[in-house]
Design a protein that fits this description.
The protein is an all-alpha fold and 350 residues long. 81% of the residues lie in helices and 0% in strands. The chain has a single domain (68-276, 301-340), classed as Rhopdopsin 7-helix transmembrane proteins (Up-down Bundle), CATH 1.20.1070. It is a multi-pass membrane protein.
Length: 350
């Protein structure tokens, strides 16, 4: 896949997102207010008639989303511990702190939603009917995704500025501007759930807050996706030109091609991970009003699982792209194995 083809694919997806969102903003679903017999379909714990879609929702939510976040707590926590333990060698440059921020957001995302599920279980799912609980869950979901997008754009921007040899001082204004923008957007999201209840824990029920919510989400998703794709492939084109100028003789052509392919591969992986995890959810939020409530919640739970997978994919990608972190983690594992071996040897000989 070339840079131009991926860019075209992103443009098509963005257009589909916009069209779907316009459809969704036009009005609430006919069954937006749940009846007494299906008010808990979102958690798969309703007391009403069971269908294959509600059963599938239960399996996805409790067998997929919940364990994914629980694994995210362990994985992100472990890598964060390794980074902080080796902070003198792993936290030297600004991009290292961007890695730390990205992992911290994934860790927070994982902890919040693991606790959210545990609280639901602890209260025998009765808390699912609570209006305040629904608003808090919906607001935290949206805001958490905002933070993850912010961290991913920071990472793409830092790589871009690094290859362009822009100093930290010169590029700081862009990071501050993006942070302020996303903070304001997140605040707007929180306000919409303060002003309106939410029955699906995704968007507000009342018309005006719902329109504001969709407007903020459309703008922020388009901006986030666009910046990530643009920055990564601008970095690729820039590196490609630099390599072409530097390795201009025929003997170095093969090396240049290999390096270009490596940069392109990395750019595609990072961009594709974001698109695969978040674009389906964004699209489904827009078109879900066209289906029944049970089908809508099933689709939401499927796309929520893709969103949840980001807390697993991101740390693995960082381990893949950042050898020092990977080596530090391997060193910790080897150190513990050596300690255990020495301890066993001590008990054997004594």
């Amino acid at each position: 896949m070339s840079a131009s083809s991926l860019t075209r694919a992103f443009a098509v997806a963005a257009a589909a997102l916009l069209a779907a969102a316009i459809t969704a903003v036009s009005g609430a679903p006919a069954d937006a207010t749940p009846s007494a017999d299906n008010s808990n379909i979102g958690m798969g714990m309703g007391a009403g008639p069971t269908t294959w879609s509600t059963e599938a929702s239960k399996v996805i939510l409790w067998g997929g989303v919940f364990p994914t976040y629980a694994c995210g707590v362990f994985l992100n926590g472990l890598i964060l511990f390794v980074i902080l333990y080796n902070r003198r060698t792993l936290l030297l440059h600004r991009i290292d702190f961007v890695y730390l921020f990205l992992l911290s957001v994934c860790m927070l995302f994982s902890v919040v939603f693991t606790v959210r599920f545990v609280v639901s279980i602890a209260y025998n799912f009765e808390v699912e009917d609570n209006d305040v609980f629904a608003r808090v869950v919906a607001a935290i979901t949206s805001v958490s995704i905002f933070f993850i997008f912010t961290a991913n754009v920071f990472l793409a921007a830092e790589r871009y500025f690094t290859f362009r040899e822009v100093s930290d001082r010169q590029s700081l204004k862009y990071f501050v501007g993006l942070a302020v923008h996303n903070f304001l957007m997140a605040a707007a999201i929180v306000v919409t759930f303060i002003l309106s209840p939410t029955t699906n824990r995704s968007w507000p029920d009342d018309p005006i807050p719902r329109i504001i919510w969709f407007a903020v989400i459309i703008w922020s998703f388009a901006l986030g996706f666009g910046l990530i794709v643009y920055l990564y492939f601008s970095t690729y084109r820039m590196v490609s030109r630099q390599l072409k100028d530097t390795l201009s003789n025929h003997k170095m052509d093969e090396l240049r091609i290999l390096l270009e392919r490596n940069v392109l591969k990395n750019s595609i992986i990072m961009s594709a991970a974001i698109i695969v995890c978040y674009m389906p959810n964004a699209l489904w939020l827009g078109i879900s009003r066209l289906v029944t409530r049970e089908q809508r919640m099933l689709g939401l739970n499927i796309t929520y699982e893709l969103v949840a997978l980001d807390v697993i994919i991101t740390p693995f990608l960082l381990l893949y792209f950042v050898p020092p972190i990977r080596e530090a983690l391997s060193g910790l594992s080897r150190g513990r194995m050596n300690e255990r071996w020495e301890d066993d040897e001590y008990h054997t000989t004594h």
